[in-house]
Amino acid sequence: MSTESYEDAIKRLGELLSKKSDLGNVAAAKIKKLTDELEELDSNKLDAVERIKSGFLHFKTNNYEKNPTLYNSLAKSQTPKFLVFACADSRVSPSHILNFQLGEAFIVRNIANMVPPYDKTKHSNVGAALEYPITVLNVENILVIGHSCCGGIKGLMAIEDNTAPTKTEFIENWIQICAPAKNRIKQDCKDLSFEDQCTNCEKEAVNVSLGNLLSYPFVRERVVKNKLAIRGAHYDFVKGTFDLWELDFKTTPAFALS
Amino acid sequence: MAATPTHFSVSHDPFSSTSLLNLQTQAIFGPNHSLKTTQLRIPASFRRKATNLQVMASGKTPGLTQEANGVAIDRQNNTDVFDDMKQRFLAFKKLKYMDDFEHYKNLADAQAPKFLVIACADSRVCPSAVLGFQPGDAFTVRNIANLVPPYESGPTETKAALEFSVNTLNVENILVIGHSRCGGIQALMKMEDEGDSRSFIHNWVVVGKKAKESTKAVASNLHFDHQCQHCEKASINHSLERLLGYPWIEEKVRQGSLSLHGGYYNFVDCTFEKWTVDYAASRGKKKEGSGIAVKDRSVWS
After folding, report:
1. Residues 6+ apart with CB under 8 A from A174
2. Which residues on A lie below 8 Å from B135 (Cβ)?
3. B113-298 fold
4. CATH class for the region spanning A78-246
5. Which one, out of A50, B63, B97, B144, has a CA that is 20 to 30 A from the CA of B223?
């Protein structure tokens, strides 16, 4: 990327045109096009801000002001029943797909909706996002939602083994959390197309995350006591479908063998 | 009133026929009969009442119905949740997806969001609801207290999302949204010993400790709640400053193809304050290490 300032660039152009005046018309057309594009860029930015302003005012008039009891209560405290892990993908907002109203769901969103295993330093981010709703807010349900055409899962499936890290250092470091899912799919589904493998991996990665949830002691103890339910889901926005399943984890009473 | 007060109290209930049907069904098919197979869809709020009534009808004293609340989730409740999810999804499909099918079809091929939003996971501050983002508008990261770790260290969760949205999706705007009564910021402000690694929450929110230090420097004489509010806003600016520490983000901001914005949603009085990072003015400040300069500040109410 050039670090030349626009003043230097204009100066250079001026010098060129003074030497080759027949380029004048071409230059004029290109400069006009560039100016139009820059104007549009600027107005796009204004549009972006106007967009969220009108979104907020719409929310305030049609939702907030029409439900004063709800919002007064939420201002004091929240009692969500759900903790949801969803992908940061712009197409899969859980509030849209599952119509969660404000106050219903504590929602964590990251690349490929992953839950890493317990690690106090490396994964304090997700750990905190689990610890707070579970131990402080006492949510009753955890839902991990995978989705179709997930860029994170596709990236995971595309990583060649034993190659040097690429320039997407953070992404690769993060998505390898679900490497067990990729390994399984590469083995069990090796005859499928890459696209079908990815779809299977999207669901298998959810299962890896569900398993990882149990590595957190405060999750496991509540699941065993039946105070917390863990579910996985897959939202397919190509077909318009939503699959939902549950993690069944319990210990049966011991019986003496002797 | 007759010997079965339960039934009479139900009949005063506007949804009584529904609940009554449920009880009768229960009696015929036994207590393990799943609600799923009844023809009538019973709203969640009344399922809870129905459960209470079932306990009452079994001959126990009304006082014991208190025990029915807060009891461990049982299999029947699980079926309720599945049913609930199903209704929610089908409503979305009918009211939004099918109505705008062309748009969803295009989105299925690729997303081209204009925004990367970094917001708190708090159930009260969903950016789609509060700012009206539609599917395809905003790549959204949500973590505790909407914090951004520094480029050089810290967990990779948020950083991977930055990398993807900025370098692959080429978003034009990053919006960091903080909010009132943030539990994460409160935990940060209450933390006594920063080395305290007993909990995940502490290990994570310490990422925002510079915001706490700057708050204590200027606002330590205020009431704790006001200090927290100050820190909520300071933390947003601190995160914006951190974003400029990512070389590929700074490069794009410098070129003008990426703008950084801060937003503060106050759900107590329902206002939204928004501001934009003034990169040119910030560059001078950055050398002094004293934060960022902002412009275009406005409050929507």
Report:
1. A110, A111, A112, A114, A152, B156, B157, B159, B160
2. 90-93, 96, 237
3. Beta-carbonic Anhydrase; Chain A (3.40.1050)
4. alpha beta
5. B144
